[in-house]
């Protein structure tokens, strides 16, 4: 048994497929304050073990669960993030005050000059980076400033604000992770080679599998925010994984409809939606053997694309086989590149599109999961090369969407940007 295979035996759920076992090496360590950290290398020298990664984090950080000093120098127990339930909607609202202190290096609110997601630079005056090594391929680690966090010994029970049963509260007993896509601080996800995106797909699968075994987690949500206009505080190419101790409101709405549809029709709503788009053809924008990308018939955003697997029965990313993971890497690369070309500024060069890329996976324990289906929902609030869509009174106040275009026009523009059928590609 190889060292890499022996190391993988430590994982509870995750199992590498044929490609990953030969071309991706996962090296775990812990950061100075005790957070989990994983190198995911696709460089052949690291995969083979000819080279190894730096595992020691030299920062003088205290254990994140140890008592911390307050403004008066007194030691106080670590405070777990809290969440409260809105009695009007039933939504849980996490309240993470520690995030007020997180570094911001992008946009007008920038307060830090260093980049905590960059590889360590010997001699650089900024030495509070999260990456122990001077280089990496892809890394995953627990967020230093999480919106949700599981604190050992913290009771996971519902109590009430002001002892009033109207206002339920509990610990935000979830988990937040960061996925760095590339060491190049100036890299754009759209410009990464497909082989690197394949490693990112493996990172989503790896973390989805492993986090599903953590007690208290109900939903795993990998996502990517990209672009200053979206509100990104760190410009480095990266995504996040939020692991909720509840079903998020949008997923709850989708589950209500997929379950009701199954009870009425005996079939899967998301599958029937995909089949209907394939039959209509007009809003299919590109596809390969294992995935289909389309503009949904009721798209909200001025640029919105959903991506779905062809094979039935896939509930979460870790259930994808090797061919489907490669197919997804190709689809995601194509989506990002064509998204950047979507708006023409007059020079034919397109633009760096601000977007949100959101993975909708079946919840872990909810009984309605079997009637759901994995899908990616990708959107941008840019509606022209020089305009963005603001979520004003109707959208923000009533969640009643007013679209600035039609799905058919969005699809027609994508049809101008490249062929519908993608050729198989593995590099």
TrEMBL record:
Compositionally biased tracts (Basic and acidic residues): 55-72
Residue ranges occupied by any Galactose-1-phosphate uridyl transferase N-terminal domain in the UniProt entry: 79-246
Disordered: annotated span: 55-74
Active site: 238 (tele-ump-histidine intermediate)
SUPFAM superfamilies on file: HIT-like (SSF54197)
BP-aspect Gene Ontology terms: galactose catabolic process via UDP-galactose, Leloir pathway
Alphabetized GO MF terms: UDP-glucose:hexose-1-phosphate uridylyltransferase activity; zinc ion binding
Top EC class for this record: transferase
All copies of domain Galactose-1-phosphate uridyl transferase C-terminal, residue ranges: 255-415
UniProt-listed InterPro entries: GalP_UDPtransf1, GalP_Utransf_C, GalP_Utransf_N, HIT-like_sf
GO CC annotations on file: cytoplasm
Sorted UniProt keywords: Carbohydrate metabolism, Galactose metabolism, Metal-binding, Nucleotidyltransferase, Transferase, Zinc
Cofactor(s) in the UniProt record: Zn(2+)
EC number: 2.7.7.12
Pfam family for this entry, one: GalP_UDP_tr_C
Family: Belongs to the galactose-1-phosphate uridylyltransferase type 1 family.
Protein name from the UniProt record: Galactose-1-phosphate uridylyltransferase
Encoding gene (name): galT
């Amino acid at each position: 048994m190889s060292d890499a295979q022996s190391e993988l035996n430590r994982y509870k759920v995750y199992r590498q497929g044929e490609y990953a076992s030969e071309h991706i090496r996962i090296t775990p360590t812990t950061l100075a304050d005790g957070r989990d950290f994983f190198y995911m290398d696709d460089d052949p020298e690291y995969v083979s073990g000819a080279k190894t990664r730096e595992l020691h984090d030299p920062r003088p950080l205290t254990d994140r669960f140890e008592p911390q000093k307050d403004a008066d120098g007194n030691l106080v127990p670590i405070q777990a993030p809290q969440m409260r339930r809105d009695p009007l909607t039933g939504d849980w609202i996490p309240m993470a005050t520690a995030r007020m202190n997180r570094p911001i290096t992008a946009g007008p609110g920038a307060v830090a000059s260093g980049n905590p997601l960059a590889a360590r630079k010997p001699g650089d005056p900024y030495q509070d980076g999260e990456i122990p090594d001077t280089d990496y391929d892809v890394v995953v680690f627990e967020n230093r400033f999480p919106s949700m966090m599981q604190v050992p010994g913290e009771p996971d029970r519902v109590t009430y604000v002001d002892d009033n049963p109207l206002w339920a509260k509990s610990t935000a007993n979830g988990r937040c992770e960061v996925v760095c896509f590339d060491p190049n601080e100036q890299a754009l996800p759209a410009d990464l080679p497909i082989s690197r995106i394949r490693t990112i797909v493996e990172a989503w699968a790896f973390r989805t599998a492993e986090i599903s075994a953590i007690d208290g987690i109900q939903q795993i949500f990998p996502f990517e925010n990209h672009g200053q206009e979206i509100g990104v505080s760190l410009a480095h190419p990266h995504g996040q994984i939020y692991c909720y101790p509840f079903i998020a409101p949008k997923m709850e709405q989708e589950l209500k409809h997929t379950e009701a549809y199954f009870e009425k029709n005996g079939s899967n709503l998301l599958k029937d939606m995909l089949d209907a788009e394939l039959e209509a053809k007009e809003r299919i924008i590109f596809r390969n053997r294992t995935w289909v990308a389309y503009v949904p018939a009721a798209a909200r955003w001025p640029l919105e694309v959903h991506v779905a697997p062809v094979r039935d029965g896939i509930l979460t990313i870790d259930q994808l086989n090797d061919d489907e993971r490669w197919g997804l890497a190709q689809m995601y690369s194509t989506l990002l590149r064509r998204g950047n070309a979507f708006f023409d500024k007059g020079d034919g060069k397109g633009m760096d599109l601000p977007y949100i890329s959101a993975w909708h996976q079946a919840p872990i324990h909810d009984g309605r999961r079997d009637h759901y289906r994995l899908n990616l929902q990708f959107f941008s609030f840019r509606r022209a090369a020089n305009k963005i869509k603001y979520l004003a009174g109707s959208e923000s106040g009533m969640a009643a969407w007013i679209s600035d275009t039609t799905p058919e026009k969005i699809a027609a523009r994508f049809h101008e940007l490249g062929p519908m059928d993608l050729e198989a590609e593995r590099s």
